[in-house]
């Protein structure tokens, strides 16, 4: 069992408050900055990283690289403007990949309608 | 679609070998199918939780970040930076690896801090909204970490399910039919050879008999 630090990457407005919780925070604006921030954090041993949806969308390629690594957890969170559906679409894509059809969330929608 | 034959010599030895491979393939197919079914079951449980957690977190975090934006609006940027520069607590998690049907997924546990305070600054120069935001974020943290754990597990499991499904399909629709077809081909070829040699023997016997009666 290893003790690891946590971090946050993304727009300054959204990630700054995570600093108060004691996380390592790197504010970024461009895809390159985000990619570099992720790389630096994982190298420094920060293995649980929260990334704003906007930054995640920009640096999708960098996220892909860490997708199959069980030691690095990168989780999209909504920015200060609220969620834009990126993270939820990722969950749905996972369901489609694993089961072949988006059966779970369709059921949810039906239940709500009914 | 007829399965392509394996390019092998139609001999009895080859037949035994392929029969043995067919048995292994069938057993592997059954095992992988069971593995896939169980992984899908686990995945559905996890992804439901993931969905629920994500909705909660998005709602609560959206609210907290909205408040933070308001707090930023009424506080000077330099003051805000200063207030948040040196955190009152440090947050770490314990990460271990657990295995769901031999898929390695991370298990995260929040390390409890003895110190209760979350605010790292004096109350005089910052707005009350900032205090509220940081308190609510601190309360949300265990949920965020749980979400991280579940979402990563879903990611990894979905990948593995896809791989296993491909393997199951490859065995079911390519390898097993190929073996069956090859076994049929070899046994027919062997039967044909046997019939050929039997007919030849009968013919030879007839000829010998004819020669004996004539002679």
Which features would summarize this protein structure in a list?
heterodimer, A: 114 residues, alpha/beta, Rossmann fold, 4-stranded parallel sheet, 6 helices, 22% strand, B: 215 residues, mainly alpha, Helix Hairpins, two-stranded antiparallel ribbon, 3 helices, 2 strands, 74% helix
SSE map:
The complex is a heterodimer of chains A (114) and B (215).
Chain A: E1 2-10, H1 12-19, E2 24-27, H2 31-43, E3 46-52, H3 53-58, H4 60-66, E4 73-77, H5 86-99, H6 103-113
Parallel strand pairs in A: 1-2, 1-3, 3-4
Chain B: H1 12-74, H2 77-85, E1 92-100, E2 103-110, H3 128-214
Antiparallel strand pairs in B: 1-2
Helix pairs in contact in B: 1-3
Q: Looking at CATH, which topology of chain B would you report?
A: Helix Hairpins
Instruction: Write the H/E string of chain B, N to C.
Output: HHEEH
Number of helical regions of chain A: 6
Question: Structural class of the secondary structure composition of chain B?
Answer: mainly alpha
Number of strands of chain A: 4
Largest interface: A-B, 42 and 63 residues
Mean pLDDT across residues of chain A: 86
Biggest sheet: strand arrangement of chain B? 1-2
Oligomer: heterodimer
Give start-end ranges of low-pLDDT stretches of chain A.
none
Largest sheet of chain A: 4 strands, parallel
């Amino acid at each position: 069992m290893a003790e690891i630090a946590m971090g946050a990457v993304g727009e300054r407005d959204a990630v700054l408050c995570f600093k108060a919780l004691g996380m390592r925070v790197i504010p970024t604006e461009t895809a390159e900055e985000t990619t570099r921030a992720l790389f630096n954090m994982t190298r420094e041993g920060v293995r649980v990283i929260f990334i704003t949806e906007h930054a995640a969308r920009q640096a999708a390629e960098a996220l892909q690289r860490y997708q199959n690594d069980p030691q690095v957890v990168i989780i999209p969170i909504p920015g200060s403007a609220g969620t834009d559906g990126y993270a939820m679409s990722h969950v749905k894509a996972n369901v489609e990949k694993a089961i072949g059809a988006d059966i779970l969330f369709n059921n949810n929608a039906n239940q709500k309608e009914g | 679609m007829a399965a392509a034959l394996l390019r092998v010599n139609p001999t009895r030895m080859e037949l035994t070998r392929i029969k043995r491979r067919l048995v292994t393939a069938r057993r592997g197919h059954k095992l992988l199918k069971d593995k896939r079914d169980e992984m899908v079951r686990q995945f559905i449980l996890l992804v439901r939780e993931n969905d629920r957690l994500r909705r909660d977190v998005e709602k609560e975090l959206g609210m907290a970040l909205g408040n933070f934006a308001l707090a930023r609006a009424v506080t000077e940027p330099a003051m805000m930076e200063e207030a948040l520069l040196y955190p009152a607590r440090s947050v770490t998690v314990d990460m271990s690896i657990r295995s769901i049907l031999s898929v390695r997924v991370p298990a995260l546990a929040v390390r409890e801090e003895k110190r209760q305070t979350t605010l790292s600054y004096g109350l005089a120069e910052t707005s009350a909204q900032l205090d509220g935001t940081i308190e609510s974020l601190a309360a949300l943290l265990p949920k965020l970490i749980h979400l991280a754990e579940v979402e990563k597990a879903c990611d990894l499991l979905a990948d593995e399910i896809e791989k296993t499904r491909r393997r199951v399909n490859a065995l079911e629709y390519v390898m097993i039919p190929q073996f069956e077809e090859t076994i049929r081909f070899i046994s027919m070829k062997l039967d044909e050879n046997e019939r050929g040699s039997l007919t030849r023997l009968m013919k030879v016997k007839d000829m010998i008999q004819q020669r004996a009666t004539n002679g």
